[in-house]
Amino acid sequence: MHKPAHNLYRFILTSLLFLTCSGVHSWELKGNHTVELINSSGAVFELGTLNVSDVGNSEEYQFNFHFNDSTFEVYFLSMRNFDCVTGEKEVFCHVVYPYDYPARVSENNLTWLEHSFLFMHKSASEFSAKLWNGIIYNMEITEEGIIGHPQAVDLNEISSPPEPGIAPYGDGSDTEIGERAEIDPKSREFVQLRIR
Question: Can you give the pTM of this predicted structure?
Answer without folding.
Answer: 0.82
